[in-house]
Design goal:
329 residues; Ribosomal Protein S5, domain 2; Alpha-Beta Plaits; 2 domains; 10 helices; globular; Homoserine_kinase; GHMP_kinase_C_sf; EC 2.7.1.39
């Protein structure tokens, strides 16, 4: 245990935005994002010791969340964490309560792992806070990931880890979901730039899943499996040309792009201006372009900001992969 937390009665956690699916890995791949200009693209959750539980919500997108703190996912994270402690024989009445503050920097329904960011930050900071108080590690990373996935499932309608895993672990992750091994870290191309653009409209994960067909043709299934296998092999061999060639979505994008105004035009511009790949970030409406040149990334970022963004809540960032993931401070 890190003793730096022992003397602190308050802690904060930051959890980065993420790209679910990464085009070719529906529900199986995820990537954490970090803007190169140093701006925050993720949520923060603060906890401090208190006589009773409370939750405050602040930040740019705070007004987009339910007004009642009891229905906020961070409140649900707190109660779920306590119930998991009870399963370990640690009663909640033996521990002090906390006052929590959610700094909501990510828009809702953006395809940037907004709910996952809040969930990851909440569980991570709660675990560090109570670990310091109890004096022993309470939950390991895989146990936390299982909790995170369960809470994420309450919002999206099904348990999946392609946002919470990269948000928590950082980098590029492959969902294993085998026993206690929830997710695996993958090699990356450190010089790639990921342009991430949020249009400003909202697309719910549940709605984006509902538009998908219930069955996938055999040919599509084979193509999906081949692309994912070749992509991972190319990562380990650092063959970026082959890896980029695999980054097309044959499962969700053909259906989901109808929900995203100017998607086809944006893809065409990005590819014509040097992007290695272009796709939908998670369920959308955010999109991403992968570039191996900063100059190309700047051109694409500017065009998306001027053409893909639909209103004043939209934004576009040039990012690289956040290799650190969630942090407590």
């Amino acid at each position: 245990m890190d003793t730096q937390y022992m003397q602190k009665k308050s802690l904060s956690a930051y959890a980065p935005a993420s790209i679910g699916n990464v085009s070719l890995g529906f529900d199986l791949l995820g990537a954490a994002l970090k803007p190169i200009d140093g701006s925050l693209l993720g949520d923060e959750v603060e906890v401090c010791q208190a006589d009773s539980f409370s939750l405050q919500i602040k930040g740019r997108f705070a007004d987009k969340l339910p007004a009642d703190p009891a229905s906020n996912i961070v409140t649900q994270c707190y109660h779920h964490y306590l119930s998991c402690l009870a399963n370990k024989g640690i009663a909640s009445d033996s521990l002090p309560a906390v006052a929590m503050t959610l700094h909501k920097h990510l828009p809702i329904g953006s395809g940037l792992g907004s709910s996952a960011s809040s969930i990851v930050a909440a569980f991570h900071v709660l675990n560090q806070f109570y670990t310091a108080l109890v004096g022993k590690k309470l939950f390991d990373d895989n146990e936390l990931l299982l909790m995170m996935g369960e809470l994420e499932g309450q919002i999206s309608g099904s348990v999946h880890y392609d946002n919470v895993a990269p948000c928590f672990m950082g980098g590029l992750t492959l969902m294993a979901e085998h026993g206690a091994q929830v997710a695996l870290p993958l090699p990356i191309f450190k010089h790639w730039y990921w342009v991430s653009c949020y249009s400003g409209i909202s697309v719910s994960t549940a709605a984006a899943r509902a538009i998908l067909p219930k069955q996938v043709p055999m040919g599509t299934t084979i193509q999906f499996g081949r692309q994912l296998a070749v992509f991972i092999d190319a990562l380990y061999r650092q063959d970026e040309k082959l890896a980029a060639a695999m980054m097309t979505d044959v499962v969700a994008e053909p259906y989901r792009k109808s929900l995203l105004p100017f998607f086809d035009e944006s893809r065409e511009f990005a590819i014509q201006n040097g992007a290695l790949a272009f796709g939908i970030s998670g369920s959308g409406p955010s999109v991403f372009a992968v570039c191996d040149s900063l100059e190309q990334a700047k051109v694409i970022n500017q065009w998306l900001a001027e053409n893909y963004i639909q209103n004043d809540t939209g934004f576009s960032h040039i990012c690289q992969l956040d290799q650190q993931g969630a942090v407590v401070y």
